[in-house]
Write a structure and sequence with these properties.
Elements: H1 9-25, E1 35-39, E2 48-50, E3 66-68, E4 74-76, H2 84-93, E5 99-102, H3 106-114, H4 128-134, E6 139-140, H5 149-160, E7 167-170, E8 174-179, H6 182-201, H7 211-221
Parallel strand pairs: 6-7
Antiparallel strand pairs: 1-2, 1-5, 2-3, 3-4, 5-8, 7-8
């Protein structure tokens, strides 16, 4: 029996599985927490691929990834993650996004338990690469996992942002990031989690970068900060 999707999806499915395994092997996701989705091109069948509900990202079967249409209806594969509504709203609000990634990364969740820097930015501007690769990351107040109202919160934050947002932090749950590809989204997540780890390890004492330093980075690298 032939696969129920265009062959152009195969490479995307393999890449999602590769990224999931990499995140799992390095402890950036655990158990069945976290999800990944990708926006498909017309050649790839349109709609989205998303990891199934309760799937472990470390052991994804590319053939079991959920293929859903633009309206969220399942086309093929296992039942989609309960965060599908959030992913679809991010794609609608951020046209440049082609991959959305959500994890329960340890240091970022710990940061929300101890208290973030401020609600509109969970971390102060600490390192050049944080500003260059990540940008501002606002906090989304706690909701029950899968609550559809989170999608409204995130869409509003994207619309209100003065510079393009690439990430938000769901209180007590973890970061949701989006970028142009699974690899780029993973790199952004890694930088964000590492910055949170540095901030916590330093007892949150370091001074932020100065306004002059921030302005220089913005001028040289067109940072999202």
């Amino acid at each position: 029996m032939s696969q129920p999707w265009p062959s152009a999806q195969n490479a995307v499915r393999a890449e999602v599985a590769r990224v999931g395994a990499s995140l799992f092997q390095r402890g950036l996701v655990h158990s069945t927490a976290g999800n990944i989705s990708v926006r498909l091109s017309s050649e790839q069948g349109d709609g989205f691929l998303i990891t199934p509900t309760d799937a472990c990202l470390g052991f994804l079967d590319p053939e079991q990834l959920s293929w859903v249409g633009e309206d969220g209806t399942l086309v093929a594969g296992a039942r989609a993650s309960k965060t599908l509504t959030l992913h679809r709203r991010i794609y609608a609000a951020a046209p440049q996004a082609h991959c959305v990634l959500h994890t329960h990364s340890t240091h970022l969740v710990a940061l929300t338990l101890q208290g973030v820097w401020r609600p509109d930015d969970i971390l102060p501007p600490l390192t050049p690469y944080q500003l260059m690769k990540v940008g501002h990351v606002p906090l989304v107040p706690y909701r029950v996992p899968g609550d559809a109202s989170v999608a409204d919160d995130v869409a509003a934050l994207i619309a209100q942002a003065k510079r393009p947002l690439h990430a938000v932090m769901l209180e007590r749950l973890g970061p949701t990031v989006w970028h142009s590809s699974p690899a780029s989204a993973m790199a952004l997540l890694e930088e964000l989690e590492e910055t949170a780890r540095l901030w916590l390890l330093s007892d949150r004492r370091p001074d932020p970068l100065t306004e002059a330093q921030i302005s220089e980075l913005q001028a040289r690298f067109n940072t999202p900060w």
